Amino acid sequence: MKLLIGFVIVTLFSAISAEDESRAHFYKTFNKLHQEPPPPVSSDTGRILDVKTNWITQKLDHFDGSNDKTWQMRYLSSDKHFKAGGPIFIFVGGEWAVSNGYLVGGHMFDMAKEHNGYMYYTEHRYYGQSQPTENLSTENLKFLHVKQALHDLNHFIATVKKEVKGLENSKVVIVGGSYSATMVTWFQVMFPGVAAGSWASSAPLLAKLDFTEYKEIVGESMKQMGGDDCYNRIENAVTTLENMLVSGREAEVKSLFKLCNNFDANNDLDVYTFFSEMSEIFAGVVQSGTKASIQNVCNQVMNSDDDVQGLASYVLKQTIGKAACVDLTYKAWLETMSDTSNTDQIMRQWIYQTCNEYGWYQTSGSKLQPFGSKFPVDLFINACRDAYKNDFTNFAIINNIQETNEFFGALNPGTNNVYFTHGQLDPWRAMGLQEEGKATILPEYAHCKDFGSISNNDSEEMKASKEAVAELVRKWVAA
Ligand SMILES: *[C@@H]1O[C@H](CO)[C@@H](O)[C@H](O)[C@H]1NC(C)=O
Ligand SMILES: *[C@@H]1O[C@H](CO)[C@@H](O)[C@H](O)[C@H]1NC(C)=O
């Protein structure tokens, strides 16, 4: 009897984990695009001992005076360089868990050293260990909003200025990358005068439902770094795959990509999910890439005589992990983002924010990209509705996006103390301020690549941009 129960439990367990394994690629691909911008110094350096983990009490709802619920927000700090009266440098957390790397090295660290500054790194509500609610039910997620997070940041600044000796009159400089670059810009819109200046690396500012430019830039950057052959191979392979799926060759496609049997070529949402995930894998290559890493991927894609074979073998290496088959159904994707208990992940929270505030769906809506036409914005509108139980209709999402643009000013935020940088390879720059004189574009760099210390490895443009930040910070902290 005991043996039988043991056997049943083991079978049950392996059944569950086999299912998880076959879907794990959804988290992997998503996390690569939304992880903490890789810290300038690895978090396991010896200097890590200088960093303290602390907690601050925050209101759950900054907009409802009658709600007195609170929660604990995590933040990291280092007073290694601090001398009384020195400025405050805050690296602002976005949709990821904070780590020590930004407080032990890199350009912000160097500037804090120059000015005897106090360094902080704040974690965004609902990400990492900063969980205001016990789970991620749609009801609980209503307190997840950038405006709430900006209030958290404002309260954080007021609190440390009041409570930490020597910071009473300190100037504040805030630094962010990607979504947190958006935040350091919008903080100036919502709380003008609190922070002397912001450095925003790779900040999207324009909320947009159908973000068709994203995959265009992924394609351009692959072409620029990996060559026409690589771009053409992806484009030809995707076209062939689209045709195979509508002409009764589903079994061949399934076998090439080791798709689990539940994949249904007659279900549009499955087909959309398949092509979307494939394009996202390449998005990850470009967004976080370097010239060398993009070339390396192109070499792998070109390592076959056949377009479809070349693409499939590369994609399969990214998706299969330890699984026996790859689940690329819409249902699996939806269930991944519907898990309300999994606060270790960031996908449910971030996609909620896109439905509720930004859109930014990186669709196949443009013909000027190599990933085909099979992941229209409908895929994401369906996901908003299905993952958060009917709160988001097409109409509601469009309204939310418009509200965001009206409130924060989109490409005209009206700020004069924010330094904007973008990587030329970075697909996100299309939603940012790129006008000459208003932003610095760094040729041949991807997303958030300018946080390291000034180094001989930097391009001329990179070095000049970092020096420009340092010069501005000197003005901001002196003023
Ligand atoms: C989620 O948390 C709420 C309380 O915030 C609780 O009422 C609800 O039962 C929880 N849901 C699940 C699925 O645990
Ligand atoms: C500069 O590049 C070299 C070679 O890629 C590398 O070994 C070194 O660590 C880099 N130095 C810095 C400061 O990034």
Q: Can I get a quick summary?
A:
With 479 residues, the chain is an alpha/beta fold.
Question: H/E series, N to C?
Answer: HEEEHEHEHEEHHHHHHHHEHHEEH
Q: How many separate domains make up the residues?
A: 2
The CATH class of the largest domain is Alpha Beta
Mean pLDDT value? 95
Radius of gyration over all CA atoms, rounded: 23 Å
Ligand list: 2-acetamido-2-deoxy-beta-D-glucopyranose
Which consecutive residue ranges, at least 5 long each, have pLDDT under 50?
Answer: 1-13
Number of helix segments? 15
Distance between the termini: 78 Å
- Secondary structure category: alpha/beta
Strand content: 5-15%
CATH fold group of the largest domain: Rossmann fold
Q: How would you write the strand order of the largest sheet?
A: 1-2-4-3-5-6-9-10
CATH level 4 superfamily of the largest domain = Alpha/Beta hydrolase fold, catalytic domain
- Give the total of beta strands: 10
Shape: globular
Helix content: 40-55%
CATH architecture of the largest domain: 3-Layer(aba) Sandwich
Please summarize the sheet with the most strands: 8 strands, mixed
Keywords, separated by commas or semicolons:
10 strands; 15 helices; binds 2-acetamido-2-deoxy-beta-D-glucopyranose; alpha/beta; Rossmann fold; 479 residues; two-stranded parallel ribbon
